[in-house]
Amino acid sequence: MTDQLxxxxxxxxxxxxxxxxxxxxxxxxxxxxxxxxxxxxxLKQQVMEDIVLLWLIGVRIVLVHGxxxxxxxxxxxxxxxxxxxxxxxxxxRETMDIVQMVLAGKVNKTLVNLLEMQGGRAIxxxxxxxxxxxxxxxxxxxxxxxxxxxxxxxxxxxLLEKGYxxxxxxxxxxxxxxxxNINGDTAAACIAGALAAERLIMMTDIAGILRxxxxxxxxxxxxxxxxxxxxxxxxxxxxGMIPKVECCATALxxxxxxxxxxxxxxPHSILMELLTDEGAGTMVSH
Length: 286
Prior knowledge:
Blueprint: H1 7-24, E1 28-33, H2 36-39, H3 41-56, E2 60-65, H4 68-77, E3 84-85, E4 88-89, H5 93-117, E5 122-126, E6 133-137, E7 146-151, H6 154-161, E8 165-169, E9 171-173, E10 179-181, H7 184-194, E11 199-204, E12 222-224, H8 228-233, H9 241-253, E13 258-263, H10 269-275, E14 282-285
Parallel strand pairs: 1-2, 1-11, 2-8, 5-8, 11-13, 12-14
Antiparallel strand pairs: 3-4, 6-7, 9-10, 13-14
Helix pairs in contact: 4-5, 7-9
């Protein structure tokens, strides 16, 4: 038995995906991308392939990215030690310069180039462009870490209407023009809400929300906002998953139809989520 699909099997796969393709064509999907899926070059290539394929079938797709590992790497090269408070990077002025260089520069333009190389049309933005992500100081202890106070979504919608894939780095600014580091999950939730997106996909380093965090087989495929408090109480949602789930709730409250938390380390997980009936990860909805 060969590992290669026959032409008939390929045709059947495409036919099976047709209802999902029909559903998402013309709809807006926001992908939050970062973590290990961004560091692994092969996975990065596959994520870009997924995004371009969705764009080619008419999905209005927005890529919002972080770049924590790359920031840490440059800080290490410059002899500067990263500091964190409650999971957020302490960002003094020098660190903010590094964040801006890495996110709005190297990472953003690398992703734009990869999408173009796959046949897509992409343009990179930071949250400072068009005051897309306007913010103020989140906590004095954190320095230049921003709390989003206003979204000016026009730069993103203009690019979508012109047929581009907007690629957004999560660097924002205040009314005085000071740059701020913004949590990527929060930025993606707010952008998806401002776009009234059909779906927000949050790529993480685990399969989704698990009843037993050590057993991927205990994945919870679907939950509602109303079920979240009980999951917090029981400890099923804890640690680093709490802020991610809070971002899911923010997105839903701002008008996103549903949010999926899924493992970005699984090859072609975006296509599995959107174009198959089984999906991938945990869907959070109203």
